[in-house]
Predict the 3D structure of the following.
Amino acid sequence: MGKQKKARKYAVMKRMISLRDQRINEKERAKAPAKKKEEDPSAIKEREVPQHPSCLFFQYNTQLGPPYHILVDTNFINFSIKAKLDLVQSMMDCLYAKCIPCITDCVMAEIEKLGQRYRVALRIAKDPRFERLPCMHKGTYADDCLVQRVTQHKCYIVATVDKELKRRIRKIPGVPIMYISRHRYNIERMPDDYGAPRF
């Protein structure tokens, strides 16, 4: 008769000694978690609510006004080149006022990373008419940077064709979005008082 085969045990872990065990050296031993104080049910609970920006009058942003500062996204420059649109001139045609395109360090870094194929976009981004905005955070993910910037300072219009970024900015009240459609720039969520064309 042959040997009886043992059933193999899968995912069996070795037994480990507890970190609070008495046999472990006292310095290396884990301390017991401190007990939480019982909360008084009658005590008034404090919660932190984000302060409502003073520049907003309901959905109307009082900080917006000419000259308009427009935060430009990477893909907006690329799509403008495809549509053969001059950025500054087309922005002025859309808003009927002076526009200052602003480029953050993140957007510039993203365009530089795209390489030789997007050298025209890089040349446009380095235009002296564009205002450079320095970034203090780590990494070069432009979407988070733009969202954070318009949440803090509601004096910008965001120019993008990225659906995901548009969806995120629509949740922030008082921030208009500029996009490209029918070979021209259009604006969304802009108060009627300003000269933006409505379609």
Summary: The helical segments are 74-82, 87-95, 105-113, 119-125, 142-152, 163-170. DSSP finds six helices and eight strands in the chain. The beta strands are 56-57, 60-61, 68-72, 99-104, 131-133, 156-159, 177-181, 184-188. The domain at 63-188 is CATH 3.40.50.1010 (Rossmann fold).
